[in-house]
């Protein structure tokens, strides 16, 4: 839902738009890859080398954020600049994200700050960047901002795509809900591509 609403409600993307995905290999990131491909986007994604294969499967150009400067890479690949940057990580990449946008481009930041202090810092940064006369914009996204009235049609659209097999959420691992701590350890390891699912007892293998 996050990826769908950002693409179609906030950014209102169109075929041929160029976008950078920051946090491209997680649950929301891989949703961006699938929905972005359906929307006809030209995508670039930041990911460690072991996850590049997944990005390439959905037509995205992977960038190794460990060894490559994504600003330098994108300025060479797209000298006119990108239309969008979708950032699900931290606000520390704001300046560099703005640097790869064309004039009129938009950075969409989603995901909650880690603390109230980070939230206040984020507000200050957003206010500061909006004052810069560079013709670029930063938009924040939260499911609460668009209102619950849009949930029903957007979920219906997503379930229709799922039924038609146009999207297929990537699930790396499934854990019984009582092993949530192990699932969290796996997420924290940085090895996950896509989603980790917690299962209620009635959905475990071998249960009637």
Radius of gyration: 18 Å
- Biggest beta sheet attributes: 6 strands, parallel
List SSEs in N-to-C order.
HEHEHEHEHEHEHHEHE
Strand order of the largest sheet: 3-2-1-4-5-6
Summarize the structure.
The chain has about 210 residues and is of the alpha/beta class. Helix content is about 40%, strand content about 20%.
List the helices and strands and how they pair.
Elements: H1 2-10, E1 18-22, H2 27-38, E2 42-46, H3 52-57, E3 61-63, H4 70-77, E4 82-87, H5 94-99, E5 101-110, H6 116-131, E6 137-141, H7 143-146, H8 151-163, E7 171-176, H9 180-188, E8 195-199
Parallel strand pairs: 1-2, 1-4, 2-3, 4-5, 5-6, 7-8
Can you tag this structure with a few keywords?
alpha/beta; two-stranded parallel ribbon; 208 residues; single chain; six-stranded parallel beta sheet; 9 helices
């Amino acid at each position: 839902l996050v990826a769908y609403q950002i693409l179609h409600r906030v950014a209102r993307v169109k075929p041929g738009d160029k976008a950078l995905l920051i946090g491209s290999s997680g649950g929301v990131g891989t949703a961006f890859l699938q929905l972005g491909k359906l929307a006809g986007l030209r995508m670039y994604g930041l990911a460690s080398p072991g996850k590049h294969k997944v990005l390439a499967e959905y037509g995205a150009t992977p960038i190794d954020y460990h060894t490559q400067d994504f600003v330098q890479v994108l300025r060479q690949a797209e000298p006119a600049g990108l239309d969008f940057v979708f950032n699900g990580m931290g606000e520390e990449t704001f300046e560099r994200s703005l640097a790869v946008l064309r004039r009129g481009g938009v950075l969409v930041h989603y995901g909650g700050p880690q603390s109230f202090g980070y939230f206040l810092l984020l507000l200050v940064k957003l206010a500061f960047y909006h004052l810069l006369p560079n013709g670029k914009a930063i938009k924040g996204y939260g499911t609460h901002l668009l209102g619950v009235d849009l949930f029903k049609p957007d979920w219906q659209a997503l379930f229709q795509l799922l039924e038609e097999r146009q999207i297929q959420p990537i699930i790396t691992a499934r854990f019984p809900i009582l092993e949530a701590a192990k699932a969290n350890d796996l997420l924290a390891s940085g090895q996950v591509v896509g989603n980790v699912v917690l299962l209620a007892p009635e959905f475990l293998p071998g249960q009637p």
